[in-house]
Amino acid sequence: MKSSTLLAACALVGVSSGLLAQNGLTATLKDGITTVQVKLPLEPWGVEGPITHVDTKNAVVVAQGQHCTIPLTIDGLPIGIDGTAVLDGTGERVTIGADNIHLIGDGQAHLGDAELRGGTRSLFSYSVGLQKSVAVMQRMAVNHLNFVQATLPFHLGALSAARQAAISQEIFSLLSEVQRAQLGAAPPTSSAGTGYTGGTLKAAGHVFVDPVTGNEYLIPDLGLVVEPAENVLLGPITSFDAGNESSIPTSFVLGDMLCIMNQDPRFGGGIHGFGMVPMTAHDFFANMPADSATTAIGYTLGDNVFYAIEVTNDMVLDQNAGLVFGIERWEFDDEGNALSMEGGVSETTGISVSIQFKMTNVGGWTPPLAMTVLPDPLMPTCSQVEFEIENFPGITVPTIEKIRIRVFKAGQGKVFQEVYDRAVVE
């Protein structure tokens, strides 16, 4: 995909510029009956903006006047909203899609039965604030109060006096608004009463057409993300507390900002160390080198409290985890029949890494190819791993379905193996 229009659209949702310009041929809408076809010639579209409406009946999310229709399937494969996850009846986390789109609403911002969970920021733009549920807005405000009051005492030594005063003032103002609402006064018009509210739709795809009615739909066949916001912090962590699973969320101070791990049950997240390997909060903080830079992505309430969805620091390595391997970047260029990736392994001596591919309609795995292993200049006990090919004989990048990576150590043989699904990592 080299079109600048498609490239810009894909950039909105973090889609690789190597995707085919045409990613979907047919889509089935939420009713399970209506099948629409990609419009020819292709008409790309993309949007990144504040959400103003969610039509749960038809699985439509509206942002900047763009009506993004979420189908049940694209080319027969189910799709979901990246970054979302809710508990099903068995306790498993499932992605929100067209069939359960109602779960994306602010009504899900409540406290769970067994753990301290709850939303603090409305999904909808401030411009539609007066249409929000009074009860839900009050619930979000109370959630925010509970989370700050539970975590703030652990970090008083790391926060400046000015920051502490600002947090206290915001909490006092919010508490007053909640109390007035309980007495029948108007509730806060913005999430948690701190002036910031609204979620973001990031989507890219093509126009599809119903061949029967001629109706056109904006189908996100190139990418679909819904998130509370995309605020970013970078700096050293000067204080942290792992919390517990019942009453105290994981929290930390990054720079001079109080950060609380996201508690909104509609959105997932995690903590990642070297090689983008998931880590528990306890192991992450216990193995963090002093003054190393941590990145937190999430959403801010006011100017003084940050809710972190993704936390990463590639200098953090769990010393008790044995060999650690992870991929930090994948890039598939279907049009150019090329791919590249970068990762890391927590060993330096006698290490070799191989990669294989499984492609559609081709039996078995390709012969193994060697990945390049180099010293990591920032982590003396680790190695960087790189791989790049273009028009390689026997490998057709658009048809790759799975990638298998193996790590070998001299004298020990294979010490790591994992199979990655392209649909998941791309």
Short description:
14% of the residues lie in helices and 37% in strands.
Helix proportion: 10-25%
Count of all domains? 4
- Which stretches of 5+ consecutive residues score pLDDT under 50? 1-21, 189-194
Helices, by number, come to: 5
Number of strands: 24
The protein's oligomeric status is single chain
Give the helices and strands as they follow along the chain: HEEEEEEEEEHHEEEEEEHEEEEEEEEEH
Rough outline: flat
Mean pLDDT equals 84
Percent of residues in beta strands: 35-45%
Rg on CA atoms, Å: 23 Å
Biggest sheet record? 9 strands, antiparallel
Structural class estimated from helices and strands: mainly beta
The termini sit apart by: 15 Å
Structure notes:
- There is one protein chain.
- Helix content is 14%, strand content 37%.
- It is mainly β and 426 residues long.
- It folds into four domains: 4-102 and 197-227, no CATH class; 108-193, no CATH class; 231-312, OB fold (Dihydrolipoamide Acetyltransferase, E2P) (Beta Barrel), CATH 2.40.50; 325-425, Immunoglobulin-like.
- The strands form four sheets. Strands 1, 2, 3, 4, 5, 6, 7, 10 and 11 form a nine-stranded antiparallel β-sheet that branches.
- A hairpin with a 7-residue loop joins strand 21 (369-375) and strand 22.
- Helix 2 runs antiparallel to helix 3 (161-182).
- The radius of gyration is 23 Å and the shape is flat.
- The chain starts with a helix and ends with a helix.
- Mean pLDDT is 84; it is low at 1-21 and 189-194.
